[in-house]
Amino acid sequence: ALAGRPAQEPNAERLSAARCRAAQALQAAVLGELQELGMAKAAFEVRVTSGALDEAALGPHGLDVIEFLISPNPGESLKPLHKIASGGELSRVMLAIRTILAAADRTPSVIFDEVDSGIGGSMGEVVGRKLLAASRRHQVLCVTHLPQIACFGDHHLVVQKRSLGDRTETTV
């Protein structure tokens, strides 16, 4: 340390500590959003695993490995989101995260496919309202079969697939 100045934590350690704090806040916020999105019994964890502070452990993103874990149903252990989530669950988790990070996220377009999987009725309306809120900051493209979600869209396209003899044709 320089004379009169306290020693500072290395940047990688400060970044890691900040990530751990942010992970706890994100985890709580995602659980709140998932409850509103019909996944009230899901468990969700943002796991930050830090490596040792040495040059071999440092990578372009610091010391940490960050993983999202989920248990969509009670009694199941937490497992990596990318390995076990269905398309609908994954879409709803992404919608939850997009809702939370909307102000800070600069991604111009987001696509949701199967966001309506396993839901209907009033929950479809909740999802539709969250997609509408996301559309205030992003272009939102959503594939849905629910009118409760589609009614919040500004533009609609109908995609149809049909077989004509020995050929399959898709029209928009």
Structure in a nutshell:
The chain is α+β, with helices and mostly antiparallel strands.
CA-atom Rg in angstroms: 21 Å
Strand order of the largest sheet: 1-2-3
Cα end-to-end separation: 66 Å
Low-confidence stretches: none
What letter string, H or E per element, gives the SSE order?
HEEEHHEHEHEE
User: Beta-strand level of the residues, as a percent range?
Assistant: 15-25%
Enumerate how many helices there are, as a single number: 5
Rounded average pLDDT: 86
Overview of this structure, please?
- By secondary structure, the protein is α+β, with helices and mostly antiparallel strands.
- Helix content is 37%, strand content 22%.
- The protein contains 5 helices and 7 strands.
- It has helices spanning 11-36, 81-84, 87-101, 121-134, 147-150, and strands spanning 43-50, 64-71, 79-80, 109-113, 139-143, 160-164, 167-171.
- The protein has a 3-stranded antiparallel sheet. Strands 4-5 form a two-stranded parallel ribbon. A two-stranded antiparallel ribbon has the order 6-7.
- β4 (109-113), α4 (121-134) and β5 form a beta-alpha-beta unit.
- The longest helix has 26 residues, at 11-36.
- The protein is elongated, with a radius of gyration of 21 Å.
- The model has no long low-confidence stretch (mean pLDDT 86).
Which terms would index this structure?
single chain; 172 residues; alpha+beta; three-stranded antiparallel β-sheet; two-stranded parallel ribbon; 5 helices; 7 strands; elongated
